[in-house]
Amino acid sequence: MKITSVECYLGDKGLGGFVTVKVNTDEGISGFGEAGLAYGKCSEAAFGQCQDFARMVLGMDPFNTEEIWEHLHRHTFWGMGGGVVVTSAMAAIDTACWDIKGKALNMPVYKLIGGKTNKKLRAYASQLQFGWRTLIEKNDALTLLYDPKDYYDVVKDAMAEGYDAVKIDPVFAPLEERPMAEVMATQGNQIRGCYREHDLTRSVERIAAAREAGGPDLDIIVEIHSLLDANTAALLGQALEPYRIMYYEEPTMPCNPGVFKHIKERCKLPLATGERSYTRWGFRQFFEDRTLDIIQPDLCTTAAGRCGLVCAGGSTVDAETFLTQLYDQIHTGGAVGNATGRNIHQRSLDEAVRLTKAISAITLDDYSVEDAMAVFNGEKDFTL
Q1: C-alpha separations of 329 from 29, 68, 112, 116 in Å
Q2: Residue 124 C-alpha from the chain's centroid
Q3: Whole-angstrom Cα distance, residue 364 to residue 384?
Q4: CB 1 within 8 A of CB 26
Q5: What is the mean pLDDT of residues 159-168?
Q6: What is the CA radius of gyration of the chain?
Q7: Which CATH number fits domain 3-105: 3.40.50.2300, 3.30.2290.10, 3.30.43.10, 3.30.390.10?
Q8: Residue range 128-295 in CATH 3.20.20.120
């Protein structure tokens, strides 16, 4: 299969400026991806970068996502140092190629990269500083909330729809009411240097009102959108400790992981970040410093490639089913290894040894499922 063309689209900026790519192949299968810079001021740059990359992948096999990733990364020259415009365009093409893989194999992509772990996931009501359904429908628009009482009401509104977790940015709305458009246009400008005491107090009051509305069982995520400096983020984190915060998201800019260490040492809240870290190298120092409790990579901006996915987990199944899934995950999905547990240790010693050899044959020596089953059945041996 070969890539024959790549179509790039830039949406109406009034609707968010979505940047989408469509990767077409000689077998008539197309995949779609997004460069996730729809809001902010980078959508046109991402669109141009997608057009540059479109010419570079012509004739390549969309199944070879690692090769494509390396090709794009190295040939940007400047992009080897990072940068969201480059990585978001790489992510768009990478996602489109994975879409092609899933369609060609008639299989959901999640099954190609390790399979499903949870049958269902919790959803939280997000960005409640802009109101929720009742208020939005009343005003036919987002409405920035200022008064702590409004935060109480909006949490009640979300909980009435069944949500048991909410996300709130308590610093986004300034102390005094201003037109929504003005606040959005100057986001962050109202917060420079150390946070004033009355600003800090008002932010805490907003979260206190949310906790009062939700009671002890509501989970509250506090998001800061990287608007605070490290010292102020630490002070606010300390002040929020009594309100049992689920996690503290992007308290400051993640460019220097050391400042997260500074915050972690000064407040007890679980820390989260990720949507502004664009490759595995962007996360490395956070992991080494053990400063993050939650990582939040954005698949439409993170050029994840060559992360070295390892397939793991899953329920106990018969050997042939397991080896087939393993083969697909490694030789189609691109996983670089496996971490196998119950499918080995819940068998007899003799079976466990034979299955371990069959797994090694697929993982380390490119055996087919049929040949690996021969190893499992004792019809042939495998050694490195």
Answers
A1: 21, 18, 5, 12
A2: 16
A3: 8
A4: yes
A5: 94
A6: 24
A7: 3.30.390.10
A8: yes
Amino acid symbol at 366: D
Residue 137, amino acid: E
pTM, whole model, 2 decimals?
0.72
Nearest-angstrom CA–CA distance, 358 and 122: 37
Q: Pick the residue with more confidence: 79 or 272?
A: 272
Tens digits of per-residue pLDDT, 173-225?
888 888 887 887 776 555 666 778 888 999 999 999 999 999 999 999 999 99
CA pair distance 160, 216, nearest whole angstrom:
16
Q: Name the amino acid, one letter, at 22.
A: K
Ordered by start, the domain boundaries in the chain are: 3-105, 128-295, 310-376
Return the pLDDT at 77: 81
Average pLDDT over residues 12-34: 84
Q: Which residue has the tokens 């608007």?
A: 227
The pLDDT score that the predictor gives to residue 308 is: 46
Q: Where are the alpha helices (DSSP H) in the chain?
A: 43-56, 65-75, 84-105, 109-112, 133-139, 148-160, 180-185, 197-214, 230-240, 257-264, 280-289, 319-327, 342-345, 349-365, 369-376
pLDDT in tens, 253-278: 888 888 999 999 999 999 999 888 87
